[in-house]
Amino acid sequence: MTPAVPSESRLLAASERMELSRAFGRKLRGLRTAAGMSIPQLADRCRISPSTISRAELGRGEPRLSLILFLCDGLTLTPDALLGDLPVPHERRTT
């Protein structure tokens, strides 16, 4: 049996999701440093582990809604301030 080869569109979608996670991480790091906080300081404010924040900043995995809300609370930001200008993956665009 020949293994299934992912279609080009599925590979593109996966690539876009990875880039979205990286863009989220860059935005998070920028907002954290602008707030003058280290990873351990933000982790303490959010009551989550520093490694969780580090993984998010490195774009490893897709952050859960609860993590996004914890980070917004710790940074005293609205979710729109953290997520508002992130790119919408091509597979989900309506236009």
Overview of the molecule:
With 95 residues, this protein is an all-alpha fold. It has a single domain, classed as Orthogonal Bundle (434 Repressor (Amino-terminal Domain)). The chain is 62% helix and 0% strand. It contains five helices and no strands. α2 crosses α3 and α2 crosses α4. It is elongated, with a radius of gyration of 16 Å. The model has no long low-confidence stretch (mean pLDDT 88).
Question: Which labels suit this protein?
Answer:
mainly alpha, 5 helices, 434 Repressor (Amino-terminal Domain)
Distance between the termini: 39 Å
Q: Given the helix and strand composition, which structural class is it?
A: mainly alpha
Architecture, CATH level 2?
Orthogonal Bundle
Helices and strands, in order, run as HHHHH
* Strand coverage percent: under 5%
Q: What's the domain count?
A: 1
Number of strands: 0
Give the structure's gist in a few sentences:
The chain contains 5 helices and no strands.
